[in-house]
Amino acid sequence: MEKVKEFLKLDQEAEQTVSRLTVQPHRVGYERSFYNEFALRGLRVDRVEPGFVSCTFKVPPRLTDKNGNLATGAIANIVDEVGGAAVFVIGLPMKVSVDMCISFLGTAKLDDELEISSKALGQRGNYSGTIVLVRNKATGELIAEGRHSLFGEQSSKL
Question: Where does the signal peptide begin and end (predicted)?
């Protein structure tokens, strides 16, 4: 535990930088949250069809790890957000993620442009499944494949 605490400890310069940040309380429904601005800024939606979403994303410095690769946590976030968008129904609350299984097959570097596609696999009751593919747009290399399970209200059949 001490090693973790030491690893997470900020140096004096980083501590001063963080202390100068102003993070206003989020007003739900009125503005984007800090999370959205940090994690999702730059994600461009290119195509939306029922059960399908296609996006592009240029890897920014804020989401890279110490080796200059898109962080695996950022990839998991993309799978979660874009996977959920494929089964979103206007007028209903967003579904809640139940399970994600992600295969990390390659790496994306700073400034690489990624193509992200999400397809609904099906629905049984209130349970939905999607598959999300993250590819390098220039090379076609598959960076990650995610299977995403969600639970939530379904649209009325009336």
Answer: none
pTM: 0.76
Q: Tens place of pLDDT for every residue, the chain, 158 residues? A: 787 777 777 788 877 877 777 766 656 665 666 676 777 888 999 999 999 999 999 999 999 999 999 999 999 999 999 999 898 877 777 788 899 999 999 999 999 999 999 999 998 888 899 999 999 999 999 999 999 999 987 665 55
